[in-house]
Fold this protein.
Amino acid sequence: MKFALIDSYRYWWPVTILPPDPDNAGKVLKQTMKIEFEAENRDEAIARMEKVATLPPSEQDAHELDELRRIVKNWDEVTEADLKTPVPFTPEVFEKALKNVWFRIGVYRAYGESLAADKARLGN
């Protein structure tokens, strides 16, 4: 496939969420979903990193949440606790998910992996 030069790059990426297993002490559950990301361009990423570096730790978390709000555009394979009822992506539901630390960690990890996908491939 030829390289396509575009202004904004959106793509789906698998995400793994690892919350503690409530029934097995010291174990985690493996929950999966897909997220549609819109990647930052290089200038945006550098500006964001420079800004975060100047913020006190108490403000860095809020800035990181704003980053997720900018780059996450949609999700798939998200259900209610019954594992049958799909949960549509809306800003309100996404805000609810952001309150879950394991969700945030999983999304950050997946976004980082997506940006370094060529490095992961080269290691295999």
In short: Residues 120-124 have pLDDT under 50 and may be disordered. Strands lie at 10-17, 31-38, 72-76. The first strand starts at residue 10 and ends at 17. The longest helix spans residues 57-71.
